[in-house]
Design brief:
Length: about 200
């Protein structure tokens, strides 16, 4: 029912997915808690070459974690960097080994899979379902900018790091910037106009 409401009818020629070519060559950036590149929804299966419009270069600030045998970057995940200067100026400095864009809380990986995860057949929840799942724009490209560093609260960030990430993605020529953080919840006008988000 929900897919019908969105106009997503699988392989129907009139579906939004077909009309939009499943988001092919669209570059979507998410600013959040990083990425877990081994996620099956980040596979570059049936994805063509990286679009020529991409100006982000080949910057992937992800080192393989112990035991990982997967290559963290591909034609689907085309950029992964972190911003932590503001966070570290107010908190203890991270060890060099933690200067990575890995998603240690799972928040952004889950969000990106919903937005533009590639098709994953045989997906289930607690062994119920066994269906193919995919994001709303499964053939689009992903860049991720990690600005959230709290292991307890994935929406915890410093506004200066968020603004630096947005500047970076404007320069990298992404098509859509998705900021998955919480903003000001106050109704005080001064706080609303000084909140970075």
């Amino acid at each position: 029912m929900f897919m019908g409401f969105l106009g997503l009818r699988g392989n129907d020629i009139n579906s939004a997915w077909k009309k939009g070519s499943f988001g092919e060559n669209t570059i979507i950036d998410n600013i959040d808690s990083g990425i877990w590149p081994e996620s099956l929804s980040l596979s570059d299966s049936r994805i063509g070459p990286i679009p020529a419009k991409w100006c982000g270069g080949n910057i992937i600030q992800i080192n393989k974690l112990n035991g990982s045998i997967e290559v963290p970057c591909n034609r689907k995940l085309i950029g992964a960097i972190f911003f932590n200067k503001s966070y570290e100026s107010f908190n203890e400095k991270f060890p060099r080994s933690q200067h990575i864009a890995y998603d240690l809380v799972g928040h952004e990986t889950r969000t990106l899979s919903t937005i533009n995860g590639n098709s994953v057949p045989g997906a289930s929840i607690f062994n119920i379902g066994n269906r193919t799942v995919k994001g709303g724009s499964p053939k689009s490209r992903i860049t991720t900018l990690k600005v959230s560093w709290s292991l307890e609260d994935a929406t915890s960030y410093f506004g200066v790091d968020v603004l630096a990430a947005i500047d970076q993605e404007i320069n990298d020529t992404v098509d859509l910037i998705y900021v998955s953080t919480s903003g000001c919840t106050s109704t005080n006008s001064e706080e609303i106009f000084t909140d970075e988000v």
